[in-house]
Write a structure and sequence with these properties.
CATH topology: Peptide Deformylase
Distance between the termini: 26 Å
Cofactor: Fe(2+)
Helix content: 10-25%
Keywords: Hydrolase, Iron, Metal-binding, Protein biosynthesis
CATH superfamily: Peptide deformylase
EC number: 3.5.1.88
Enzyme class: hydrolase
CATH class: Alpha Beta
Organism: Tangfeifania diversioriginum
Number of strands: 7
């Protein structure tokens, strides 16, 4: 089942998500539906708050970047109750977009390396370090669990210039090819 994407203006996107207590059939179904939603929406990552669920879960498929980073050829992971332990390395700028902010793309500065603890879809614990494109996508999706959007990294001037676009998203005056859940006013 494809979920509608929760868009800018919904207070859920600004909440810190709650930990997941245990593996359940319902959680497996949410993960399956999130993969379907992400692929349908042409995303490379998706966090549970983006589909209206305030739980600490996100998934990433960075395999689309395998041409530039061959080690990402089969990079498809589920992150449950993730916790960033450390970010390090050079800061670099990359143009980012977000399914919850349709029609907005901006240059965002992030560190190159992220060390993260998480549970996979089988509730097996992992502690890994990611860099490059995968590291960036993981940091972006993790931010969603903390109530942070990529526009929060922009300068005050840049945010002011985006004000009308953000207002249009919040009132549903955007036309992405995927279903969106517009905040109730």
């Amino acid at each position: 089942m494809k979920y509608p994407i929760t868009v800018y203006g919904d207070p859920l996107l600004r909440k810190k998500a709650k930990p997941i207590e245990k593996k359940t059939e319902e959680l497996d179904e949410i993960i399956e539906n999130m993969w379907e939603t992400m692929y349908y929406s042409d995303g490379i990552g998706l966090a549970a708050p983006q589909v209206g669920k305030s739980i600490r879960l996100f998934l990433v498929d960075a395999s689309s970047a395998a041409d530039e980073e061959p080690e990402l050829k089969d990079f498809k992971k589920v992150f449950i109750n993730p916790e960033i332990i450390e970010t390090a390395g050079e800061e670099w700028i990359m143009n980012e977009g977000c399914l919850s902010l349709p029609e907005i793309r901006e240059d965002v500065k992030r560190t190159d390396v992220v060390r993260i603890k998480y549970l996979d879809e089988n509730f097996e614990p992992h502690e890994e370090e990611f860099s490059g494109f995968a590291g960036r996508v993981i940091q972006h999706e993790y931010d969603h669990l903390e109530g942070i959007l990529f526009i929060d990294y922009l300068s005050p001037l840049r945010k002011r210039l985006l004000k009308s676009k953000l207002r249009n998203i919040a009132i549903g005056k955007v036309t992405p090819h995927y279903r969106i859940n517009v905040p109730v006013r």
